[in-house]
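Translate structure to sequence.
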């Protein structure tokens, strides 16, 4: 096995020497855990945007789901890619159109905690989308924006708006659409609905938006095209959020109340989980179940709380309760939960 591993490493290194990551922009098309489980993470998921553009000067430009672009130093040693100080990946596959990276965490983790990312080169991106039915075409030259094809602003659009709008009115919003050409120009802009925003501010916002013409980019295709994007903008000044937030690919009113877990929610759910885990290790299964349930009342996507609550119920011979949690894990795309359910439960 050691000899085989050496041959594989040598082969990948040989390939990397003959090819360059700078030959393309790499667009993420899929992400999963190492064991094949679905990623359940509020900040990083299969659908979150991620693009790598490796430059000639050993730097990589990374575009993320927030629309920001950051530069980091990178280096490649054999089949290992290091980005910045803390991100390390094993290069599992690298061809002229495909790149697969496996996280190399700084500590030992289970396979359902380690991420694998699948990228495709920008010149093959539209072929991939077309063959998988992922392009929403309005007509031959106009595409409706979605998670795969969308216009991206050269900077942080929220900050741009905040820097140019002096007065923010609480719990108000705008809904609209705009069309961007493949050259980055805005060819159409419409406000569809507004709440609490005066005509004066709508006009000002329209001018600010049109002034960004030429500062948008679209994924490269083999022909010129236009991309229509629906959006909403939320204006808020309460204690949970104060400022402007711009969201694309939606024509619905924005959320104002309990839209996401707060930092205090995250802290409290983690405290419940940690307390439950300590009780589980001590064999105090009844109290552990209570703590894990308290955790899940706050964060229904806390995967490890489902696993641990199922374990506690299984120890107490509460088979049906354990099976309910394993079934939930299966529905959330967790491979270990799916295995436990199939081994211990009946449909």
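Result:
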């Amino acid at each position: 096995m050691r000899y085989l591993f050496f041959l594989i490493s040598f082969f990948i290194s040989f390939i990397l020497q003959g090819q360059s990551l700078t030959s393309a922009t790499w667009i993420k098309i899929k992400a999963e855990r190492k064991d094949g489980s679905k990623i359940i993470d509020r900040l990083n998921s299969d659908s979150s945007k991620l693009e790598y553009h490796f430059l000639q000067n050993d730097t990589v430009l990374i575009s993320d789901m927030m629309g920001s672009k950051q530069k980091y130093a990178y280096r490649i040693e054999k089949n290992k890619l290091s980005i910045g100080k803390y991100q390390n990946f094993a290069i599992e596959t690298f061809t002229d159109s495909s790149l697969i990276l496996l996280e190399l965490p700084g500590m030992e983790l289970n396979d359902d905690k380690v991420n694998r990312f699948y990228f495709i080169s920008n010149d093959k991106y539209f072929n991939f989308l077309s063959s998988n039915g992922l392009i929403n075409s309005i007509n031959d030259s106009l595409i409706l924006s979605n998670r795969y094809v969308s216009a991206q602003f050269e900077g942080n659009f929220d900050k741009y708006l905040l820097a140019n709008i002096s007065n923010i009115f609480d719990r108000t919003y705008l809904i609209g659409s705009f069309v961007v050409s493949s050259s980055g120009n805005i060819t159409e802009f419409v406000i569809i609905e507004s709440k609490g925003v005066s005509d004066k501010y709508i006009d000002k916002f329209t001018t600010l938006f049109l002034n960004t013409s030429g500062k948008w980019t679209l994924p490269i295709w083999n022909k010129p095209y236009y991309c229509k994007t629906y959006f909403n903008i939320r204006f808020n000044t309460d204690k949970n959020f104060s400022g402007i937030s711009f969201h694309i690919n939606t024509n619905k009113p924005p959320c104002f109340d309990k839209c996401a877990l707060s930092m205090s929610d995250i802290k409290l759910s983690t405290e419940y989980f940690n307390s439950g885990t300590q009780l589980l290790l001590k064999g105090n299964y009844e109290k552990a179940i209570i703590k894990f349930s308290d955790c899940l009342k706050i964060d229904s996507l806390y995967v490890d709380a489902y696993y641990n609550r199922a374990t506690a119920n299984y120890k107490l011979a509460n088979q049906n309760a354990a099976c309910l949690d394993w079934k939930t894990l299966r529905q959330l795309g967790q491979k270990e939960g799916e295995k436990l359910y199939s081994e211990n439960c009946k449909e």
